[in-house]
Amino acid sequence: MTHFNRILITGAAGRLGIELRKGLAHLATHVRISDRVELADVQPNEEAVVCELGDYEAVMVLTKDVDAIVHFGGAPLEVEFETILDSNIRGSYHIYEGARKNGAKRVIYASSVHAIGYHEMEAHIDADSPVRPDSLYGVSKNFVENLSRLYWDKFGIESLCLRIFSSFPEPADRRMLWSWLSFADCVQYVERALVAPRLGHTIGHGLSDNRLKVVDDSKAGHIGFHPKDSAEPFRDAMEAKTDAPDPNAASVKYIGGWFCELGHPDDEGK
Questions:
Q1: Rounded to whole angstroms, how far apart are CA atoms 89 and 15?
Q2: Pairing of strands 201-206, 158-164
Q3: What is residue 244's predicted lDDT score, i.e. its pLDDT?
Q4: What positions does the domain NAD-dependent epimerase/dehydratase occupy (predicted)?
Q5: 254 is catalytic
Q6: Which of 75, 64, 11, 7 is CA-nearest to residue 39?
Q7: 140: part of which helix (H) or strand (E)?
């Protein structure tokens, strides 16, 4: 069923962006896809736009005539602060300003576990727990979560801030036995947020139906996401090929994993 005339997907050349292009195509007559690089395999209902999110004027054009925005663009890892500032902080402000000025009423934002990465595994947090970023990258996600709250309260733009944990084709290490979000479940979560009767301002936690339940996602229950996949089929093989981790290591103690062991990115190579 087609719900929109036109949706915008940023970060459309990325790992998840490629999956979203395929999985959300049926929701809209037109899909505008954007990244900072040329996009391949553009489909008949897709309109491809190369855009730097830090370019205000370009983003105002990018967000024109769209009904909803799936914002997965930006620097995807801990990198130097100037890149995070331009791509993630300034770029996301431009997206929300574009939504406000051009009349888009719903934004689905790719937040991250790294916005809350310094919570301990046993804390069992939910959407109302304090943020505890594990990196400058995580701080940029905190900024956009707060920005989206402002744009809901003041301007009525609905948002899902989806804190993605580990979304890959299959679990790649022991941590992902609890933190994995399958591609199909990620697309389903975004789709449910796009078509939900009411979204408001929601913090969601992107996890498949894994055995270990580290985070409570019930405060996003009104969206109607029900994960269909689980990391359990991968457990025996993963545990057989990897040693048991040190329970006192920061990468095991905190839900942010190895990000909690990183130094300041501007010091790298010095």
A1: 21
A2: parallel
A3: 81
A4: 7-168
A5: no
A6: 11
A7: helix 136-155
What is the chain's Cα-based Rg?
18
**83: three-class secondary structure by DSSP:** helix
What share of residues in the chain are helix, strand, coil (percent, to 5)?
40, 20, 40
Share of the chain above pLDDT 70, in %: 99
Of the candidates 137, 151, 189, 254, the residue annotated as catalytic is 137
Structure tokens at 233: 């089929």
pLDDT digits (tens, 9 = 90+) for 177-199: 999 999 999 999 999 999 999 99
Identity of the amino acid at 252: V
Total length of the chain: 270
Token pair 């391949």 in the structure block, residue: 40
Single-letter residue type at 243: D
Token pair belonging to 227: 């994960």
Six token digits for residue 222: 């009104």
Give the pLDDT confidence of 129-179 residue by residue, as tens digits.
999 999 999 999 999 999 999 999 999 999 999 999 999 999 999 999 999
Domains within the chain, CATH numbers bracketed: 4-267 (3.40.50.720)
